[in-house]
Amino acid sequence: MRPTVLVLAEERRVRWEAGSGYAGGGLREARGTRDEEHTVIRLRSSIRLALLVGILGSTVALTGCILVAVPKIVSAMKGSKTSTATVVIDEEPRTVYVQAVAIIKERGYTRITKQDDAKFFVEGTRDGKNATFQATGIGANQTQVILTIENDEGEQALNNALQGVMDLCRRLDVECQQGEG
User: Fold this and answer.
1) Which residue of 36, 62, 143, 169 has the fewest C-beta atoms within 10 A of its own C-beta?
2) Torsion-angle region of residue 64: left (phi > 0), alpha (psi -120 to 50) or beta?
3) 72-178: which CATH topology?
């Protein structure tokens, strides 16, 4: 195939064909109507649009559905002495920490006994039981949240830890759900 360049003019198209037998190429005139020229332009635009849609479709198929928010999974477990709830949130540690402290202060029933703003750590007591909160940066704009509460007789500590993390998710406008297990 020889490379061809089309130049659209008012009532004519001029086609230049490389190596057409003339020294250095040559000019050859070809008559065409405006309707034919517009059809060529529309056809090229349609092909470009189809390629763009195909590329975007392939990208979505390869990376998964990128428009749907995936809920963060909150893991909660009861140990022999403490119950812990943890989640990874796509937010900076400082933002997560500030919101957690605000929730603790708003509720008013947990007394803060130790607070380290540089380490994003809070320790407190509630009904004689100790609790700790830690926000740790684990990547670019990702924070691991760990809320630990000293166990009581029933499942109350586990429920409180889970509820505390779920409240933090709501405050940060992050969709979280309890993991299974």
Assistant:
1) 62
2) left
3) Alpha-D-Glucose-1,6-Bisphosphate; Chain A, domain 4 (3.30.530)
